TrEMBL record:
Lineage, opening ranks: Bacteria, Pseudomonadati, Pseudomonadota, Gammaproteobacteria, Thiohalospirales
UniProt similarity note: Belongs to the FliR/MopE/SpaR family.
Alphabetized NCBIfam families for the sequence: fliR
Protein name in UniProt: Flagellar biosynthetic protein FliR
Cellular component annotations (GO), alphabetically ordered: bacterial-type flagellum basal body; plasma membrane
Origin species: Thiohalospira halophila DSM 15071
Membrane topology annotation: Multi-pass membrane protein
Amino acid sequence: MELTTAEITAWIGSFLWPFMRISAMLFAAPVFGNAYTPTRVRIFVAVVLTVMIAPQLGPMPVIDPTSPAAFLVALHQILIGVAMGFVVQLTFATVILGGQVMALQMGLGFASMVDPQTGTQVPVVSQLWVIVATLLFVVMDGHLMIVQVVLESFKGIPVGPTGFDRSAWWTLASQGAHVFAGGVLIALPVVASVMVVNLAFGIMTRASPQLNIFAVGFPVTMTVGFGVMILTLPTFEERFVDLVAHAFETIRSLFGPQSG
């Protein structure tokens, strides 16, 4: 049995192009893109998903892997994968932002540790919420939803020399507003409670100037903040589910007619 160059190129492309999109998404998405997740594990998962998904995608465009057109196709696949993972990652950025606002109001802005999602220093309050959000994300099958949306992306944006159009990039850029709005909403109960406590301490200081507000205020503010966090945990769950749903709706909105 002899194989022609075109047949070999088509066979390589049927796995190479999907692998690039899937692997790029895994490196950018939460859970899979965790800084503590070994690179070998991500590549292995990408290979397994490619082998499972590729046969369902139909024939791929026959492109010489060494040609300029192949570079353009590879670039589009990587950008599409990174964009999808980035949108979901913004959900966790929203949680981190909300935790940072809480930490500043509670006087814990100086207490920080490394976030495994991003590999950067974040307040411990943010890290606490990130852990809760990660557990919720896995419980609601968010990792499986990522795989599903990748499969859908090949139907909306087939492999080829075209990618997202200009409106899709504007949609991605507009997600920054949702990060700030969502972060403020997550932190709002704690911010409001601590503001009331600070107002009460201000009135007490005016009534009793000899009161050492610095010795009393910090532990009370921190205790009230953590108490409100515990009480609002069910609300956080509902809000996080809405954030994840919005992220996947945004990704699917990118799969409309593409003009390149």
